[in-house]
């Protein structure tokens, strides 16, 4: 718990004050308790008279702060102020840093280097697999993966990090005690147990549309780079990418099919100068993050998988998107009777996945 927690929360709950005005007050007095002690003097600053001169509003805010502290203690949540030694240095650099952070989980994790992985909620299978693979590789190389716990790419990124025993941070557009979306209650519990769930909003704050663009600055602010996996032209991920640029972070984007509307936003970012990412190594090169020798783009030791020439030919014919068996046969120049046992053998070895409609895709962990 941060020092002067009651004072910080009192400022937070004062109607009309907000992070921007609190930042102005901090520039004068440095700490929440000092601001309240010099309330009469602070009220003479432009725009603050009505807020700080209202004794009834101050008393109500103080009562609300005390109730909030009780809830924080009961739920084992940490509260960090922007002047605390535990406040992440990455957020100190941004202009509109949050005044308070509620953290459920490992507070020290917020000091670690992070990669943000974001994208479409209604992601394709390609996007979900790619997010998991890149998140797993980043986690295995010592980066914490930060995202927003939404459906689609966000959830896949958190899952990818967790699956390899890595660290991940979920930044919410609601209170840390509110499971949103509700279907991710278990995922958020797992993240809190082995990583951290973070929000600047008070406990019990419900998810509302306007809060998500606000929380996006924390996702980008915590990270060294923001990786956009899939995003449409009007995706909220583009807001996060713009915030990342404003904060001096690297913006990276993974291309998809030119026919896919889910990737149109990522393609636009690349046109605007975002770094095009094709391999996991591209991410670490863009971040100037050292990659251990002897690893492949999946994060582990380069595997030696013995394949017959015909099996290798079939694998090479399968790219990121599913292909029907006739197309594979045509590309490989094989009869269906010869191709089917090869596909079955690759499927049994976990290298190929069969989909409905006689479609096949290459499995990339």
TrEMBL record:
BP term (GO), one: DNA-mediated transformation
Family: Belongs to the DprA/Smf family.
Residue ranges of domain DprA winged helix in the record: 301-358
SUPFAM superfamilies to which the protein is assigned, alphabetical: MCP/YpsA-like
Pfam families: DNA_processg_A (PF02481), WHD_DprA (PF17782)
Domain Smf/DprA SLOG: 80-287
The protein's name in its UniProt record: DNA protecting protein DprA
Entry superkingdom: Bacteria
């Amino acid at each position: 718990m941060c020092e002067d927690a009651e004072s910080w929360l009192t400022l937070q709950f004062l109607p009309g004050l907000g992070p921007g005005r609190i930042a102005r007050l901090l520039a004068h007095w440095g700490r929440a308790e000092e601001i309240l002690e010099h309330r009469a003097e602070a009220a003479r600053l432009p725009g603050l008279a009505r807020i700080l001169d209202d004794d009834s509003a101050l008393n109500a805010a103080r009562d609300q702060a005390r109730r909030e502290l009780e809830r924080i203690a009961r739920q084992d949540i940490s509260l960090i102020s922007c002047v605390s030694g535990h406040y992440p240095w990455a957020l100190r650099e941004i202009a509109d840093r949050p005044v308070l952070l509620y953290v459920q989980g490992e507070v020290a994790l917020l000091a670690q280097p992070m990669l943000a992985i974001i994208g479409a909620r209604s992601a394709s299978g390609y996007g979900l697999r790619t997010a998991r693979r890149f998140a797993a590789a980043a986690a295995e190389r010592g980066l914490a993966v930060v995202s927003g716990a939404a459906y689609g790419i966000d959830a896949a990124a958190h899952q990818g990090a967790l699956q390899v025993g890595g660290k991940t941070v979920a930044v919410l557009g609601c209170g840390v005690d509110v499971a949103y979306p509700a279907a991710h209650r278990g995922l958020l519990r797992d993240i809190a147990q082995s990583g951290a769930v973070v929000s600047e909003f008070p406990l019990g704050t419900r998810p509302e549309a306007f809060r998500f663009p606000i929380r996006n600055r924390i996702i980008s602010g915590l990270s060294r780079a923001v990786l956009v996996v899939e995003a449409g032209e009007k995706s909220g991920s583009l807001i996060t990418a713009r915030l990342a640029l404003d904060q001096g972070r690297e913006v990276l984007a993974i291309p998809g099919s030119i026919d896919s509307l889910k990737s149109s936003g990522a393609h636009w970012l690349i046109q605007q100068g975002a770094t095009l990412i094709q391999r996991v190594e591209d991410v670490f090169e863009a971040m100037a993050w050292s990659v251990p020798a002897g690893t492949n783009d999946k994060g582990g030791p380069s595997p030696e998988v013995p394949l017959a020439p015909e099996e290798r030919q079939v694998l090479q014919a399968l790219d990121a998107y599913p292909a029907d068996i006739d197309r594979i046969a045509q590309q490989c120049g094989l009869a269906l009777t010869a191709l089917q046992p090869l596909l079955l053998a690759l499927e049994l070895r976990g290298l190929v996945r069969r989909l409905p409609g006689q479609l096949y895709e290459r499995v990339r962990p």
